[in-house]
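Entry 14. Structure prediction run on the chain below.
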Amino acid sequence: MAQQTRGRKVEGLTDGPILPALLTLSWPIILSNLLQTAYNLADTFWLGRLGDWAVAAISVSFPIVFLFISLGLGLTIAGTALVAQHIGAGQHRRANYLSSQTLGFVGAMAVVLSFLGYFLSGPILGLMGPEPEVIVAAEAYLRTWFLGIPFIFGFSVFQALIKGYGDTINPMKLMVAAVLLNIVLDPLLIFGWGPFPALGVQGAAVATVFSRGLAAVVGLHLLFKGTLGIKVSLRHMKPDWPTIATILKIGVPAAAEHSMKAVGISAMTATVALFGTPTLAAFGVGNRIGSVVFLPSLGLGQATTTMVGQNLGARRDDRAESATKLGSGIAFGILTLFGLFTYTYSNFVAGIFLPGEELAMGLASDYLRVAAFSYGFLGVLNVANGAFRGAGRTVTAMTFALLSMLGIRVPLAYILSTLTPMGVDGLWWAVNASNVLGGGLAFLWFTRGTWKGRIID
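Output returned:
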């Protein structure tokens, strides 16, 4: 079948050549993720002009943000898997009903998490141990961000449901608009250019919430209107507890995966903070550069979720397996090439985000060089976990993600950095080891084939 992407799902997901379908699904997701990361980098770029304390503030905020948003993201993953399998099985009305239930439940959670996050920001930051100047800026950033959680979750639900249907173009279009607006607002609100107030670190959060809020309003309007293939309705949002139980059965392990990864990132950040603000700033820059490098595998992983879900729904298990193997190979190759680039130009890249901060820049360069050649393995982990999620095997995906972060990275980072002569370098080598072992073990488990099978009637 022909590949159709304008306002409709990609056709040919359950028949025909696999590579064109996988790439047609992947590239809008990759571009969307690139844009998502672009505004993170824009935050880092502009805040770096305030000083390393400002970069450290958003670095220490990131795991807390990730922890709370993970609870909602886990449930949106359930929506993607269920919609994909029902669409693959030709059950469109059921897909619409599940979409309405997912939106209603995640929306209610967003309100609760917004309230909790706003009031818990200060105490959580205090436990992480950054310097007082960093805590003040980070708390202002976090409280603003938490007020916008309902909008952020709303846009995430829109993306997940439409991707499960097989349409990756329209979520990309909205992301383009949101990110461009965010990038324009960043310097205006951080430095107070023109009529705008100078909000410093908090200005980055205001820009994010405002731009994402507009995208959420448009996305939800399209879902209620039903013009993109998935139609939600208020009458179908009335809690249907057996359906919600199904969503939770798939979504809770995915939420736990992301949440525990956030806990791991927080623990890793606390370990890094032992070595001072320059090391914390270097860690933040290295992570943000890494987030750009990982984008192809994240896109391929999300595309694999849709491919696997729809093919398992259509009882095409062999095709689901082939798509995953192909995506893993592509991810490994691309990320290894990107790793070679970051290794070669590590000093230049670090200098862009930490101008004039010689110590922090040198540490960030070291981080990039050590982690560079483990990127390919992380790509394999992302794609394999994408397949597990598409199959509804979110417990399996959770296991390997947590093994990589909490089982390997965090304890190894502490041991190598504090109990051996490696010092700060031990932090970076722990990242390398966790990527290699996590990706390798996930792919070996995938080859066993125990993940195959439908989760729908």
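The CA atoms of residues 275 and 424 lie 7 Å apart.
Filed with the rest of this week's runs.
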